[in-house]
Amino acid sequence: MSVKLNLKKDELIAIAEEMGLTVPDRAKVVDLRALIESSDVYKNDIEFVRNLIDNILEEKRERLDGFEKEKLEKLEREKRECELELEKIRLAQFEKQLEIANATRDLANTSQATEIGEPGSLNDNLENLIKSVKTLTIPVPVRSESFNLFFHSLEKAFQNKSVPNELKAEILLNILGEKVNNLLAYVSQEDLCDYEKIKQLVLKEFEPTPQECLSNFKKAQRLPSETYVQFASRLCASFDYYCQLRKVTDFRSLCDLIVSDKIFETLDRELMTHIAVKQGESFFKPQQLGRECDVYLS
After folding, report:
1. Are 290 and 254 in contact (CB under 8 A)?
2. Residue 125, domain member (yes or no)
3. What is the predicted pLDDT for the residue at 291?
4. Residue 135 burial class via C-beta count within 10 angstroms: exposed 0-12, middle 13-18, buried 19 and up
5. Which terminus, N or C, of the chain has the lesser number of Cβ atoms within 10 Å?
C-alpha cells in the first residue's frame, strides 16, 4: 500500500535526503514527490518509508514544541522586564510629583525676575523650565520600544508648559544627557537646534522593528498601579507608533495591515522568517502576501 506524500517542502527534502536521494536545486513540492515516489526504496520498502516519515514528523514536532516553549519563556521574561520598568516609571513619576509645586513656583519667580531684567534670569528661566518639563515626563527609557511613549509624554509636557519651539531641542538634549552622546557626533550645529531632527535621530537609533512593536502591543497588560484610562492611553500610543512604522495613513491601508498580520500569524516558523525578511519595514498587502506564500511553497 502506497504512502500519500501530502507534506511540506522542508519535510519532503528531509525524507529524500534520509533515503539517500539527491535533491535538485530549486526543486518544487511536486518535483520532490516525484523524486521520492520513483525511488527504489519507495517502491520496494514502503514500510521503511512510512516509519521514516513518522520519525521526521515527530522530530519536527519536538523542535516546534521546544521553540514554542522557548518563545513562551522569552515572552514571560520580557513581560516581567516590561512590568518592572513601568513600575519604575510610575515610582519615578510619583516621587517627582512632589517637585511640581516647587518647580512651578520657581518658574513663576524666575519669570518675574526676567521682567525686571535681573542678571542671569534668562538662564535661570531655562533651567527651571527644563526641571519642570522633566518632572512631567517619564524617565528616559531603558528598552528601545518605550521611546515612543517617552516622546509622547515629553510633548504633552511641552504643551502643558507652553514651551517655545526654539527651546524644545535644548530641553530634549538636557533630558537625554549621556544617552545620545555618540549620536551627537554626527549632528551639525544647525540640526542641534531642531527638535524634530533630534527626535527622529533618536527614534531611528533606538526604535524596535515593526514586528517587535506589534508583539509588545499584543502582550501588553494593565499594571496593578495603572488605571484603565492610563492603560488605554498607553495602548493607543503603542498602536499608533506601530502604524507609523508600517506607514499606515488611511483606513484602507489599516484594513490591509490587520488582514496581513492575521495571515502572518498563521505561518509556520520557516515561512514566517522568509516573509519577514522579504517585506522588511513595510508590509505585503493580503493578496501579495498570499502570492509570496504560494510561490515559496510551490
Report:
1. no
2. no
3. 92
4. buried
5. N
Coil vs helix vs strand at 207? coil
Task: Give 15-36 pLDDT, tens digit per residue.
Answer: 888 888 888 888 888 888 888 8
Beta carbons within 10 angstroms of residue 142's beta carbon = 12
Q: What's the CA gap between 168 and 186, in Å, rounded?
A: 20
Domain co-membership, 186 together with 227 = no
CA distance 198 to 193: 8
Extract the residue ranges of the chain whose pLDDT is less than 70: 1-2, 83, 86-124, 143-145, 179, 181-186
Please answer whether residues 203 and 151 qualify as being in contact, where contact means their C-beta atoms are separated by less than 8 angstroms: yes
User: d(Cα 251, Cα 31) in Å, to the nearest integer?
Assistant: 43
Q: Give 209-226 pLDDT, tens digit per residue.
A: 888 888 888 888 888 877
Residues 6+ away with beta carbon under 8 Å from 49: 3, 15, 19, 36, 41, 42
Name the region of 177 (left: φ>0; alpha: ψ -120 to 50; beta: rest).
Answer: left
pLDDT at position 115 is 46
51 and 83 assigned to the same domain? yes
Cα separation, 11 vs 8, in Å, equals 5
Residue 256, C-alpha cell as written in the block: 490591509
What pLDDT does 94 receive? 56
pLDDT at site 287 = 94
**Residue where one domain finishes, among candidates 175, 206, 237:** 206
Indicate the number of domains in the chain: 3
Which uninterrupted H or E stretch holds 93?
helix 46-115
Please identify which residue in the block is written with the cell numbers 519615578. 92
Q: How many CB atoms lie within 10 A of CB 295?
A: 9
